[in-house]
COMM domain-containing protein 3
Amino acid sequence: ILDDPDLKDIDPTVLKHCHAAAATCILEAGKQRADISAISTCLEDCKLDKERIEQFCTEYQKNKDALEILLGSIGRSPLHITDVSWRLEYQIKNNQLHKTYQPSYLVTLNVENSDSGSHPDVSFSCTMEQLQDLVGKLKDAAKSLERATQM
C-alpha cells in the first residue's frame, strides 16, 4: 500500500491508521455476519460519502464468503503450549562473507488448539539477551498467576 503511486502524497502514518481501521471494520463485519444495510449504516455514521460506501459494500459482498471461511479457520481458543525444545546456533559468517561469530537460540514451541487438535509448531530465533528477557517475563507471569490463585 505504501508503494502505491496514487497514495504517495498521504502521510504514511495516516495511511497505516486508515488501513488498520478498514481491516478492523471488515473483520468485525465478518465476525458479526453483518448484512449490507448494517455496514452501510455504520459507515454513514462514520461520515463516509455514499459512493465510497457503495464501493466498500460491493467489494465486501464479493469477498464475504472467503472472509467467513478464513475467520472460521482461525478458531476461538488460544494455542496451548505442550512442549518446548531449543538448540544453540552459531553463525560464523553473514551473507557478505564477513565473520560474525554470533550465537543464537532456535526455540520451537509445540502447540495444540483445543478446537482442532495439533497445529504446526511455532519456531523463532533469538539472542541470549532476548531469551533471558522471555524467561524473565514468563517467570513474572507465573508469579502473577500464583498470587491471583491464592486470593
The chain has two domains: 12-74, 81-150. The longest strand covers residues 99-113. Residues 12-74 form one domain.
